[in-house]
Write a structure and sequence with these properties.
The complex is a heterodimer of chains A (365) and B (230). Chain A is α/β, with parallel strands linked by helices and 365 residues long. Chain A has helices at residues 42-49, 72-77, 94-98, 100-104, 109-122, 139-151, 169-186, 197-203, 222-227, 232-238, 242-249, 269-276, 299-302, 326-335, 356-364, and strands at residues 2-9, 19-26, 31-35, 57-62, 65-66, 79-82, 157-161, 189-194, 206-211, 215-220, 262-263, 283-287, 293-298, 319-320, 340-344, 350-355.
């Protein structure tokens, strides 16, 4: 747990405060993102936690212990640290870079070797990279090595300053996904700094929005921030389409699916029509005997056919699963000619449909 | 025979190698004063340069010292220091040493400071954030990465000292300068050339040896960077 209690920072020779009277608590296993425009003191705040910068006033505690009462070098060895440019040592191999903190704290070589191997696998890095130098890596690999290095001695707390900002958007997205997967398993207590609100929304358990001078505007869960911004500053900073952003935070599993009309290929045409009627629709999903989705037919398709399967069964443009976000469900709704999202399980078995009304209800409430 | 060829022949004749005015004796003297001057300069300039480069404190003082050192004429220093060292043993040795140390300090100081400062700030920042102490930062990151630049400074100093240490002969110490100044007084062109050739040869050898050393201390950075930094 990290606690900031009325922390202020004023740099010598500067008029205003870089951080003003900031109080914040980060719970164990929680990923908190500090976000705000440049000059909002987010990096300064983060760097005060491991004493790279010392506060002018106020108190910072990690696991209940005041950081100012600890030896800064020992304190930092217990806190993972990643910066935007990564800062790998250019004259050390990937393995040696990852081994930095374990060596500092005196692990034996065998344990270090095993740990390097474990981290390389965790971050899906090629094992051949261990003996390579940082200049021989791609940008994305460097970022992953940077995060792996910070995790090497398994610190309970991590500080991350825009660790994914230096790579292109596609690589960044992949790194974020991978990082979320790893964090879901490790449950580290993380303070993460970014200027990118979308990254914050995607990664954070809670977001602290800071204004210029390190003034805390709002500290809340992402969906709360989007639903109820505390100030005009937060509303502006969160940006356009807050409703869509909230949908991206919610999954299909969060709302009830409708049963929807279904029919088997062997059914007669009038059975298909009978299935459509209770839902007020003029199409039905066609399922095989195992319940897998074959496609859909409308009333005109089956008219005059002996069996539904004789008609031209059309494919849905997109499916969603219970793990999909409501935003992708909305996308499926507007992409399918039937104007619903078809929900399937992992084996492509039919679970139901989502209508535009059902999704829209989530944005409004 | 041309004077140059005669001078070379003179040097190569084993009859001129031994004795108080022999080639080997003056070589030993010249190497001694050079090595000692550079060692003393290194002992002063390296810690100072590391301190300034690491802490970024006293940068102005370092630049000022280096420029002043370059502006001071070695001959002038020798002349000023000489009267104060008359009571010391090794007539002419100490004024030469002091002048040569002052000559050798600026390149080592400047290169050490610049070499350390040019290590990427983010590399140091990340390592500090991971819990390296200031001494560990210096020894594990800044010093190894700055080493080639520091050795280049030593090379500049050493070559300059080899050339300038010939002045020692004016103040009574030996070295190759002995041949040059004796040659002047005796109107012996060949002797002057002997001194000049020997000084030039020692300067080239010094340059080559330290160039190899500079290459050896270059930290590995992998295939992609090797081409870029070579």
């Amino acid at each position: 747990m990290i606690t900031l209690d009325k922390v202020s920072k004023r740099f010598p020779g500067q008029d205003g405060f870089a951080v003003t009277d900031l109080s914040l608590q980060v719970d164990d296993g929680e990923l908190v993102v500090l976000v705000g425009p440049s000059g909002c003191g987010k990096t300064t705040t983060m760097r005060m936690i491991n004493r790279l910068i010392e506060p002018t006033s106020g108190r910072i505690a990690v696991d209940g212990r005041d950081v100012m009462e600890q030896d800064p070098v020992q304190l930092r060895r217990g806190i993972g640290y990643v910066i935007q440019s990564v800062g790998l040592m250019p004259h050390r191999t990937v393995g040696e870079n990852i081994a930095t903190v374990p060596r500092l704290v005196g692990w034996d070589e065998r344990r270090i070797r095993e740990r390097i191997q474990e981290l390389v696998e965790m971050f899906a890095l090629d094992g051949g990279l261990i003996g390579r130098y940082p200049s021989e890596l791609s940008g994305g690999q460097r970022q992953r090595v940077g995060v792996a290095r910070a995790l090497a001695a398994d610190p309970p707390v991590m500080l991350m300053d825009e660790p994914f900002a230096a790579v292109d958007p596609i690589v960044r997205e992949r790194l974020q996904e991978q990082f979320l997967d790893i964090q879901a398993r490790l449950r580290k207590t993380i303070v993460f700094v970014t200027h990118d609100i979308d990254e914050a929304i995607k990664l954070a358990d809670r977001i602290a929005i800071l204004n210029v001078g390190g003034v805390l505007e709002q500290y809340a869960r992402p969906e709360e921030l989007l639903r109820a911004p505390a100030s005009d500053f937060v509303r502006d900073f969160v940006g356009p389409e807050p409703g869509l952003k909230r949908l991206s935070l919610m999954s299909v599993a969060d709302i009830d699916v409708e049963a929807g009309p279904v029919v088997h290929p062997d059914a007669a045409a009038d059975e298909a029509v009978a299935a459509m009627e209770p839902f007020g629709l003029d199409w039905a999903t066609v399922l095989d005997p195992e319940g897998r989705v074959l496609g859909w037919v409308d009333r005109a398709d089956v008219t005059g056919r002996a069996r539904v399967g004789d008609a031209d069964v059309k494919r849905f443009a997109a499916y969603v699963t219970s793990g999909s976000s409501l935003r992708s469900a909305l996308d499926a709704i507007v992409s399918n000619r039937t104007q619903v999202a078809v929900v399937v399980d992992e084996q492509e078995r039919y679970r139901g449909i989502l209508s535009l009304e059902a999704v829209a209800k989530e944005i409004i409430t | 025979m041309q004077p140059f060829a005669r001078a070379v022949a003179w040097i190569l004749s084993p009859a001129h190698w031994w004795g108080p005015d022999g080639v080997l004796t003056h070589t030993a003297e010249h190497v001694e004063i050079t090595a000692l001057s550079v060692a003393v300069a290194l002992a002063i300039a390296l810690p100072a340069g590391l301190y300034v480069g690491h802490t970024r404190r006293g940068e102005k003082a370092a630049v000022w010292t280096a420029n002043l050192g370059r502006a001071l004429p070695a001959f002038g220093i020798l002349g000023i220091v000489f009267p104060f060292t008359l009571s010391l043993p090794g007539f002419g040795f100490y004024p030469t040493l002091i002048a040569m140390v002052l000559l050798a300090i600026p390149p080592i100081l400047t290169n050490t400071y610049v070499g350390v400062r040019s290590v990427e700030a983010d590399t140091v920042e990340a390592a500090r954030g991971m819990g390296m102490s200031e001494v560990q930062l210096l020894r594990r990151i800044e010093l190894p990465l700055a080493a080639p630049v520091i050795v280049a400074g030593i090379r500049t100093s050493a070559v300059a000292v080899v050339a300038t240490a010939t002045l020692a002969a004016v103040f009574g110490w030996g070295g190759y300068g002995r041949y040059i100044f004796d040659g002047f007084y005796q109107n012996d062109t060949v002797k002057i050339l002997v001194g000049a050739i020997l000084v030039a040869a020692l300067a080239v050898v010094t340059e080559l040896v330290l160039a190899v050393a500079e290459h050896l201390v270059r930290p590995a950075r992998g295939a992609a960077a090797a081409g870029a930094t070579a």
